[in-house]
Structures are given as structure tokens and as C-alpha cells.
Amino acid sequence: MNATRDIEKPYAVAEQIGPLVRRVLARNPSPFTFTGTQTYIVGEGRDVAVIDPGPDEAEHLDALVEAIGDARVVAICCTHTHRDHSPAAAPLAARTGAPIAGCAPLILDDDGPRADASFDPTYRPDRILADGEALTGDGWTLTAIATPGHTSNHLCFALEETGALFTGDHVMGWSTSVVSPPDGDMTAYLASLQKLHERTQDSVYYPAHGPAVTRPRQLVRGMIGHRRQREKQIQRQIEAGRTRIADMVPHMYKGVDERLWPAAGRSVLAHLIDLEKRGITTRREDEWMLLARS
Fold first, then answer.
1. Does the pLDDT of residue 202 top 50, yes or no?
2. Which residues in 49-88 are b (16+ Cβ under 10 Å) and which e?
3. 232: burial class by Cβ within 10 Å (0-12, 13-18, 19+)?
4. How much of the chain exceeds pLDDT 70, in percent?
5. Calpha distance 83→26 (Å, rounded)
6. Catalytic positions, please?
7. d(Cα 135, Cα 220) in Å, to the nearest integer?
8. Domain of life, per the record (predicted)?
9. Confidence of residue 48 (pLDDT cuts 50, 70, 90)
10. Three state DSSP letters for 123-156
């Protein structure tokens, strides 16, 4: 993956990227966060909302406070609670007096290597938003869209006035989302993708990492197709005698940086669990087999 194919972005600077939307990029680039976490400030009037405040880093927090200025922060919204998304919520709330709203808290002991970031145990929301609940401010409305899959508590936020959708890690233009069990769920992820594909009102996606998505339904359709191809590829691996995930990944991800293979293995596991639910695979310890189809 090559960060240079994204535009040059300054860190800790508020950039106007669309109607009612500014972006502040956190200085936390990595193979899993691309150029870093993008925090969005919604609103141009007397009050604003902050989406995905990002990591608890002084430079980033100072930039957010400067960009907010004299506006009132109606809510600090988190799409989910990986450590690159929500840790700045509490210190930003302390500095602005704003409530924290959005996804539910989630703390898990993962059963494998973390693929993107571990969960944030400090996240304490003042308000948990259910699917369809809205936040309003001066000239803007944000509606929560439940999109479990990458994590069970993942939300997107729709800016009703402009057709923008803040997609967190659910849909990104630069990379597919990691789905890592036990909390990541491929069945839920695919259902959430289908849910977004059916939303014809969304004209642009603003993900937490990477460039804006200007043809969102086309991208989502392609992502669903990609996942269906992956599950067929997994079945072919099993048919070829590769019954362990560690044996499948090198063949399935030959052109991928080997540092990302643990993450790829987690998504393969998520696919296998989905196939197991559908009666296509079964397992014995760490070996997977295809069930005979009638």
C-alpha cells in the first residue's frame, strides 16, 4: 500500500473539504491507518460536531480546539472504539465541555493478533446512539447508521443536508476493512455493506482513513463482489488440501506485504466462520473442511 497515491495532507491543520465539513488529520500513519486518522468537524455556524476525535495526541487535540474556536461542540461522535478513533474523546470533552455520543462502549480480549488497533478501554459515552437516531446543530443534522461488522459497535453518520456519509472504517477507498473475530463478524459486515448499497441518498463517503469516495454505491457493490470472490477462493484452497489458515494466506495474498498477513488471516477466519454458519464449512481444531452439498 502506497500513501503517495493520496494527496499530500498537512497534519494538525483544519481543511475545508465539503459543505459543512472540515478535516483534521492526526499524525498516526501506519500500514493500517494509511496517512492517519481523519477527524471531521461538522458545521460552520455557532455549533459543531466532531466525528472520530482520533488518538490522544497533544498536537492533534490542539489543532481540533483551534479549529473549533468559539463554536459550541454539540457532540463528540465516535464510529467505533479502536484506539486510533476514540481515545481523544475524553480529553476533548474535558477541554470543550461537550458530551460524547455515538457507538456503544466495547472492551474485548481478542483471541489473535490485532490487525489494525486494539479497543479503547477508556471510552465512556454520555449518549449511545441507536440506528436512526439524530443529532442536530446550527444548519446540520447527523443521523446514526448502524453498520456492525468491522466491529460490533460500528456506526456511520449521515449528514442529511449534503448527502455525505462518514463511514469510519466500514468503507474506505484505499483499502478493504479488516474483519477480525471474535468481535468482527463477516456475516454482519456483508449485511451492513448491503444496507449502505441500498441508501441511494448518499453522494460521497468520508472515511476515517484515505480519500473521499465519490462513487460510493459503485465502490460498495465492488466490495461485496470482492468478498464473495474471497470466499470462493477459500473454498478452492480447502479443495487443494490447504486446510489451515496459515497455509491459505501465503497463496491468497501473494502480492501483499507480509506484515499484513496476520490481518489477512483474521479476515480469512471471519469468512470461514460465515461459511460455517451457512453450512458450507466445518472445522476440527485448526483445520477446516468443506461439507458435502446435497
1. yes
2. bbbbbbbbbeebbebbeebbeebebbbbbbbbbbbbbbbb
3. exposed
4. 93
5. 12
6. 84
7. 26
8. Bacteria
9. very high
10. CCCCEECCCCCEEEECCEEEEEEECCCCCCCCEE
Torsion of CA 169, 171, 173, 179, to 10 degrees: 60
* pLDDT, mean of residues 179-185: 93
Handedness of CA 8, 226, 258, 112 (dihedral sign): positive
Starting at the earlier edge strand, list the strands of the sheet with 140-146: 134-137, 140-146, 155-159, 164-168, 204-207
For residue 4, is pLDDT > 50?
no
Per the structure block, which three cell numbers stand in for 279?
453450512
Q: What is residue 257's predicted lDDT score, i.e. its pLDDT?
A: 87
Whether residue 29 has pLDDT greater than 80: yes
Q: What is the pTM of this model?
A: 0.92
Please give the residue that has the higher pLDDT: either 173 or 294: 173
* CB neighbour list of residue 29: distance below 8 Å, 6 or more residues apart: 3, 35, 36
The residues that bridge with 15 in the sheet, in sequence order, are: 23
